[in-house]
Amino acid sequence: VSLLTKLLANALVVEKQPIMSSLPQRPLILKTKVQFTVTVRFLANLPEFKCPIKAKPVFDKFRGFDFSRADCKVLDVDTPGGGLVAEFGHMSIKDKRHPKSKGTSEPFSRLGVTEELHIIKFVADFQHAGLRCNIEASSLPLVVVSSTNQIPSAWASVMWYNMLCTSEPRNLSLFANPPPLTWKQLSQVLSWQFLSVGQRELDEHQLSMLREKFVDNPDDPIHWNKFSKNESAWIWIDGILDLIKKHLVDLWREGFIMGFVNRKRTRALLQEKKTGTFLLRFSESNNDGAITFSWVEHSNGETHVHAVDPCTKQELSVMSLPDIINHYSLRAKKNMTMNPLLYLYPDIDKDVAFGPYYKSSGKVKDGYVVRRLMPVTLMSVSFLPSPPPSPPREIPPMDMDMNMDTDMDINPDQLIQDLFTELTYLQNATISE
Amino acid sequence: VSLLTKLLANALVVEKQPIMSSLPQRPLILKTKVQFTVTVRFLANLPEFKCPIKAKPVFDKFRGFDFSRADCKVLDVDTPGGGLVAEFGHMSIKDKRHPKSKGTSEPFSRLGVTEELHIIKFVADFQHAGLRCNIEASSLPLVVVSSTNQIPSAWASVMWYNMLCTSEPRNLSLFANPPPLTWKQLSQVLSWQFLSVGQRELDEHQLSMLREKFVDNPDDPIHWNKFSKNESAWIWIDGILDLIKKHLVDLWREGFIMGFVNRKRTRALLQEKKTGTFLLRFSESNNDGAITFSWVEHSNGETHVHAVDPCTKQELSVMSLPDIINHYSLRAKKNMTMNPLLYLYPDIDKDVAFGPYYKSSGKVKDGYVVRRLMPVTLMSVSFLPSPPPSPPREIPPMDMDMNMDTDMDINPDQLIQDLFTELTYLQNATISE
DNA sequence: ACAGTTTCCCGTAAATGC
DNA sequence: TGCATTTACGGGAAACTG
């Protein structure tokens, strides 16, 4: 009997829920009122087991959650290994608390919902050799959420738990007094997230920039509150994971996105490079995941590093980043345009890197002339000489119309010079970090 | 007693459901499993009514739908008029049919769900002067849907019913054998839809274009199947209503959108006008609602009318139509740009019409140079002379880089000429309607 | 296979509770 | 009042079901 108990205690529990299609590979999070499937696997099928064994899933009732349906099921023979298995489909969790008596019960006094750890238990009763056996198996700790907006925090808990508690017994009260993680541990989990979402881990420079968000010294412990609470760095990182998943998988996998570089380092890196060199970095202020590009320009013996406002998910769903880079233009009142992006840092030709991802679009479709949205930075009418100290105008600069300007006999070098001079002027007019 | 019955039979029924916020003013459509509120109003409160009257909502059980909750309620005194009223909140409809026995029952044999007309009845029992009175009131016919994608069809039914049956008795089997509508009737309902959504009715030209979608002769009857069945014109019109609601209310209200003009008429109208005159029309092929602009250009004694591919809702949610018009550019390899849109038909200066709706956007934000997505039509490198008969290339034309072309000493007139020549070339290369 | 119909569920917004 | 948590439901897609 003790053997049986041991075998069943080692049972595997697998959950599948559509929630995982949102950000993939996020098991151990269940959403209330959403269907999922649990499977209990009994690793051996001893010949003595003649009678059918019935298992029943049970949810801990700590908080008032319970299964909406939890029927007994007979364990079937697993095809390849010969083990015993039962799959419980169309299960879901309901909050059974009455609107009035929703007081959190014991183990979770001061914890947030996403810090509560729950388990699914399986109980089986059967007779063996005249003995009544009562055995149990339980899942890994789960987090139960009621809305998708809780998933990032819930996943933080799952990661933290699994870095700390890899062996039994389960400590469901871990977050009542959460131990810290070393940077070595945390950086590993973080890197795995990028591997899982974007098929590429974080390199040492990226990790080093992230480290600064948590601790000054690589040896300092990182506390749970610093990681996951109020306006935490994790929420920012998770927004970027989602951005990669939805719009940047290819570029991330190829390693074209440095991503985690602050402005200071961006400047330092680009300054050394030739005009037109650029790099891609994630916005540090946008918590929903956004990406931007910076490029360097040398002229008149001066060096300038320019930054463009970040591309949001909404914009990327209209035009992909490779296309944005391909079509980005500076545009002056002279109605001349120029793409300042030439080489991906350190010196990869832009088209070599991104060319395979440009979306070709015909010129004509169903008799229409094709119009595309193009990323453009507009320059104002007259910024030279001696720019007026007025703040940036609120009136959008007029496009040129049919009556084209007549001063078109400028030379190309002068145009480039003018464009950059204005960029510099604009940049100086703002507070930089 | 017959007086009482009459009074209650005239009761008003009002439904409120969040569904109405999707497209507003679409009452008489209820979605299963979504909460709504019904109010029954008894128009008089005779002094003899001493005892409280209880009313109870009842759903016709034709199809297996029923209320999830339908408690009795006592009629209260209505504040201003002195009438009796009861409001039933948090009601919802559930499909009680067993997954096995979902056979449609009698009155709806061959009808689609959105052609089934249901009513909510209110029944009240009370004693008056020793007599037991059993009275009823019922709502206008309702359509019950299970998904928002059924709303356009459902609304078609509601409109059709209400054009035909303005008086009692209710004919719930109307769509078993639906009578036709005259164009006069239909055009009126359609016009009301635009009034309701966009605060402006359809004018005679717009109606005349729509009429051609239904009948050749204004006196021909319009049949239900022509209006609402398979790939019907109504679904197309409804997509445009939604487009107006979400992105074009202002422009529609101002009358800047001709909208319903076919290509032939577009050409005829614009040909007479000066170069740069344009008009806005709805895409006739996109069923989800899309809008495009066409403009005229005279050069070399030839006249060309150009059409741009339609703007979808997704694009409009990134940039509004006034901004798209304001920033639209033709762009040549010379990297010179030009906006061909000057006058809204017949001769309104573009900025006079749309200027108030341009969104100003600063040049700099948080130290970033602001980048905008701009609508641009790209021209290919060399289209002159004697354009090669090859099909439009699949390779997107390369943007210019820092190494600007050296042939910049062209004159503006020549550029304009070149741009239009290519447009004409492109247009001729495709099959036009 | 297929179309009409319903369910499922994410993501946003609003409501609710504490 | 503010924050944490839950509910509501539109919209797109998948699943159902005859």
Question: Which helices and strands appear, and what pairs or packs with what?
Answer:
Two copies of one chain form a homodimer.
Chain A (H helix, E strand, L loop, with lengths): L1 H8 L2 E5 L12 E3 L4 E7 L11 E6 L5 E3 L5 E2 L1 E2 L6 E8 L1 E3 L24 E9 L2 E8 L4 E3 L5 H14 L18 H16 L5 H11 L9 H5 L4 H22 L8 H9 L5 E6 L8 E9 L2 E6 L5 H6 L2 H7 L1 E3 L5 E2 L4 E2 L3 E2 H5 L9 E2 L2 E2 L2 E7 L33 H17 L5
Parallel strand pairs in A: 2-12, 13-18, 16-22
Antiparallel strand pairs in A: 1-3, 3-8, 4-6, 4-10, 5-9, 7-8, 10-11, 13-14, 14-15, 16-17, 18-19, 20-21
Helix pairs in contact in A: 3-6
The structure holds a DNA duplex (18 and 18 nucleotides).
Family (chains A, B): Belongs to the transcription factor STAT family.
Subcellular location (chains A, B): Cytoplasm; Nucleus
GO molecular function, one term (chains A, B): DNA binding
What does this structure look like?
Chains A, B: Keywords: Activator, Cytoplasm, DNA-binding, Nucleus, Phosphoprotein, SH2 domain, Transcription, Transcription regulation. Chains A, B: Residues 252-358 form the SH2 domain. Chains A, B: It comes from Larimichthys crocea (Large yellow croaker). Chains A, B: Its main location: cytoplasm. 2 copies of one chain form a homodimer. The longest helix of chain A has 22 residues, at 233-254. By secondary structure, the first copy, chain A, is an alpha+beta fold. In chain A, a hairpin with a 3-residue loop joins β18 and β19 (348-349). The N and C termini of chain A lie far apart (68 Å). Chain A has helices spanning 2-9, 151-164, 183-198, 204-214, 224-228, 233-254, 263-271, 313-318, 321-327, 350-354, 412-428, and strands at 12-16, 29-31, 36-42, 54-59, 65-67, 73-74, 76-77, 84-91, 93-95, 120-128, 131-138, 143-145, 277-282, 291-299, 302-307, 329-331, 337-338, 343-344, 348-349, 364-365, 368-369, 372-378. In chain A, the strands form 7 sheets. Chain A has a 5-stranded mixed sheet with strand order 15-14-13-18-19, sandwiched between helices. In chain A, strands 1-3-8-7 form a 4-stranded antiparallel sheet, with no helix packed on it. A 4-stranded antiparallel sheet of chain A has the order 6-4-10-11, covered by helices on one side. The radius of gyration of chain A is 29 Å and the shape is elongated. In chain A, 38% of the residues are buried. The model of chain A is unreliable at 380-410 and 429-433 (pLDDT under 50). At the A-B interface, α8, β17, β20, β21 and β22 of A face α8, β17, β20, β21 and β22 of B.
